[in-house]
Q: What sequence folds into this?
């Protein structure tokens, strides 16, 4: 195949650039990933050894796809393609001893980290920490990504909370060291410190990975930056691609300046700009372009496409969240029924995973096949975690966390007290829990039954550890038998045990596939593979199912049809970002990423009423909706509520600049009788909100009554004060807090009586 035939001139220029640093700065869908893949193949064609090339991507999924494409372009080439974390895990297997790691180190995932933080708090005797363990955990993670040590954190601490984080951080590090474990961030941090402190190692890796390529460079953090930098000193043949408008991992420490300052970091940088988008229709791109221009902190960049104009972007407002989910399901069905698309052409994106549940329900009842990316990942399921913990302990006997997880699984009659005795003896003696368990007889306070249980467990452990060098599949099968875990699940009442066994079957299949692909591979490699797996890795676009995923997970992907749902203030933008302009810009970029995934059709939606913590609440629309250009869109309100909400009014849709709606077979646009209905302004006598309320209507404003405001949404009257035209009301809005109005001059409408619910 001609590697260059279907590339544009600037793309070709980037692919054919061999030596020296290069920055491919380009918009969404302009072929950045295509350039990276082709460039790897091109380098190989130039006679550069596969060994000398390192390609780093953001997910294993992306890495896998790239590997496949490289394999198709240049069969047989085994290039290092992977994520930063995967790359670092592999490096540490060879060089880990330089940072004091055992060969058989364990990688802690998110839940292991949190558990460790909790244990540390416990051990430090902190019962009621002023910040949650989750927040401490993420502060530690942030510190690591910024390459800050516990000491420097303590030094910088400004209040008690900071000091607590620093203290927990230090103890957390001790614990990981004792267990010969690393967390995800350590994978990067350890490699950074090896590259920094061992000049010979750095130089040899720099020479080995002579050609480094990084996709999605805009989302690299400090540690990742340092790694790439250190590998490109003697051989600065570094090619990075990125789009600052798609930087969406700031909350995880990604540093936009890595890409913005690339030209300052390296000499003689070749900069290639790709300005054409090959993915989306003109309408979709115009909407994306308008939106992103609201970000002030950006360099202007045009998005151009030769693609057709396509269908207008659709914006629909629904009543309740279930109406939205059903509406989306209905749309998907008509798109598929038309014969225009398959289910697998369609993706539904939302800001947070919690929102997927409603859509799952709607898809199930509409019999739409779907797959969910995110939520509880497969490897976090209890039974999978149990078996994996056994494997971790077999691989690394110092892994106290794994010991804790499995010593009483299945139940061996060990109580909390016995376990506490074991822990304090182990701490006192400076031993691992497994070592101390072997000497259970000498542990003060243990009853005979507990001693027996610990000794039985260590015997089981030795039997299992003896199998260490067998295939991973065999080890798993044996451990399930010998530990009695399989029987334990079989004995579980109901279907639960069977479901769990089915999950374990899936784990066994994964192990079998791993054994087949990696002859002679160790348990450790399998463990590192599955621990670093992200939910998206298990996703398969070819399964004939609709994909349901978060906006973050959608990065880099593309779909013919995209739905972005729940475009409401507090969801997207996330309420966390409200007070922070730079976070608001990141939220806008997140929507931009979502929009630019769509190739042919884009549907945006929101609902007016959403249940939140069990309560029905009125929503306010996402401010981003007001930033979208109407001439490329069609709008429909299916909620049955008429408001003058910032001009998104259905009655004026044709005259307010919207494109005209295409004729489309659609379900009855009026809400079903079961659908939630607010008392509409129309029912109250007007086609839309009046700007003032007639004095004669003021009686309706009583404390406790529900009111609707065109901008603030639904609220409840807290108190009223005064009389006649000066009468004031204090309203508590569900989403905007308390506000006071001179009632006669306000555009408020009473939608529910005092003491009643705002429903009818
Ligand atoms: N020269 C080209 N001719 C035709 N199609 C192209 C060309 N370049 C890229 N494409 C197609 O355009 C789409 C987008 O390309 P690609 O995914 O590489 O863009 P990207 O810049 O990496 O996008 P993102 O910013 O979303 O990661 C893909 O379907 C790709 O196959
Ligand atoms: Mg890409």
A:
């Amino acid at each position: 195949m001609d590697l260059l035939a279907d590339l544009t001139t600037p793309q070709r220029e980037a692919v054919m650039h061999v030596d020296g640093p290069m920055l491919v700065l380009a918009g969404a869908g302009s072929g950045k990933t295509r350039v990276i893949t082709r460039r790897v193949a091109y380098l190989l064609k130039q006679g550069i050894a596969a060994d000398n090339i390192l390609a780093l991507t953001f997910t294993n999924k992306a890495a896998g796809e790239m590997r496949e494409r490289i394999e198709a372009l240049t069969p047989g080439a085994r290039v290092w393609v992977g994520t930063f974390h995967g790359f670092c895990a592999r490096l540490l297997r060879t060089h880990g001893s330089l940072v004091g790691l055992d060969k058989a180190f364990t990688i802690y995932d998110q839940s292991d980290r949190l558990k460790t933080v909790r244990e540390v708090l416990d051990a430090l005797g902190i019962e009621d920490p002023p910040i949650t363990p989750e927040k401490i955990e993420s502060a530690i993670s942030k510190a690591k990504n910024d390459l800050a040590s516990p000491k420097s954190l303590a030094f910088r601490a400004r209040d008690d909370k900071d000091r607590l984080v620093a203290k927990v951080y230090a103890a957390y590090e001790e614990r990981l060291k004792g267990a010969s474990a690393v967390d995800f961030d350590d994978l990067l941090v350890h490699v950074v410190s090896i590259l920094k402190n061992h000049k010979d190692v750095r130089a040899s890796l720099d020479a080995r990975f002579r050609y480094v390529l990084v996709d999605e460079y805009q989302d690299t953090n400090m540690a990742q930056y340092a790694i790439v930098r250190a590998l490109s000193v003697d051989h600065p043949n570094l090619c990075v691609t990125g789009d600052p408008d798609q930087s969406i991992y700031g909350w995880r420490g990604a540093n936009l300046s890595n890409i913005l300052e690339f030209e300052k970091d390296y000499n003689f940088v070749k900069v290639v700009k790709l300005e054409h988008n090959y993915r989306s229709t003109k309408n979709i791109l115009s909407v994306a372009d308008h939106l992103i221009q609201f970000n002030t902190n950006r360099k202007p960049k045009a998005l151009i496409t030769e693609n057709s104009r396509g269908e207008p972007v659709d914006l629909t407002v629904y009543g309740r969240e279930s109406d939205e989910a059903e509406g989306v399901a209905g749309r998907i069905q008509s798109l598929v029924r038309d014969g225009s698309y398959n289910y697998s052409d369609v993706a539904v994106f939302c800001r947070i995973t919690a929102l997927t549940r409603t859509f799952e329900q709607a898809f199930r009842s509409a019999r739409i096949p779907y797959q969910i990316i995110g939520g509880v990942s497969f490897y976090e399921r209890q039974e999978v975690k149990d078996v994996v913990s056994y494997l971790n302990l077999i691989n690394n006997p110092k892994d106290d966390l794994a010991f804790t997880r499995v010593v009483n699984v299945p139940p061996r009659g060990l109580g909390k007290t016995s376990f506490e005795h074991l822990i304090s003896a182990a701490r006192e003696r400076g031993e691992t829990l497994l070592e101390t368990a072997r000497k259970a007889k000498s542990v003060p306070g243990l009853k005979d039954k507990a001693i027996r249980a610990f000794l039985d467990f260590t015997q089981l452990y030795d039997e299992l550890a003896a199998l260490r060098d067998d295939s991973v599949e065999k080890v798993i099968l044996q451990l399930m038998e010998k530990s009695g875990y399989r029987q334990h699940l079989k004995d579980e009442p109901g279907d639960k045990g069977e479901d769990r066994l089915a999950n374990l079957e899936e784990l066994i299949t994964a192990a079998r596939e791993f054994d087949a692909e990696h002859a002679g591979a160790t348990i450790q490699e399998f463990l590192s593979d599955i621990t670093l797996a992200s939910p998206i890795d298990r996703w398969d676009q070819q399964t004939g199912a609709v994909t349901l995923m978060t906006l973050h997970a959608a990065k880099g992907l593309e779909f013919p049809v995209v739905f972005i749902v729940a475009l409401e203030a507090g969801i997207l933008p996330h309420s966390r970002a409200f007070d922070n302009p730079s976070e608001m810009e990141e939220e806008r970029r997140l929507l931009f990423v979502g929009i630019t995934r769509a190739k042919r059709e884009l549907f945006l939606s929101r609902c007016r009423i959403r249940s939140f913590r069990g309560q029905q609440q009125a929503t306010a629309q996402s401010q981003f909706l007001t930033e979208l250009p109407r001439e490329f869109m069609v709008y429909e309100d299916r909620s049955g509520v008429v408001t003058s909400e910032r001009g998104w009014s259905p009655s004026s849709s044709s005259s307010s600049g919207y494109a005209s709606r295409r004729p489309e077979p659609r379900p009855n646009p009026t809400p079903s009788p079961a659908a939630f209905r607010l008392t509409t302004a129309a029912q109250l006598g007007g086609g839309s909100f009046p700007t003032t309320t007639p004095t004669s209507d003021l009686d309706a404003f009583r404390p406790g009554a529900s009111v609707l405001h065109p901008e603030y949404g639904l609220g409840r009257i807290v108190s009223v004060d005064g009389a006649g035209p000066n009468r004031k009301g204090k309203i508590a809005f569900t989403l905007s807090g308390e506000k006071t109005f001179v009632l006669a001059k306000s555009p408020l409408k009473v939608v529910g009586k005092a003491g009643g619910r705002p429903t009818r």
Notes: Residues 32-33, 215, 556 surround magnesium ion (ligand 2) (CB under 6 Å). The first helix runs from residue 9 to 16. The chain has five domains: 9-96+188-274, 106-179, 304-375+541-637, 378-532, 698-750.
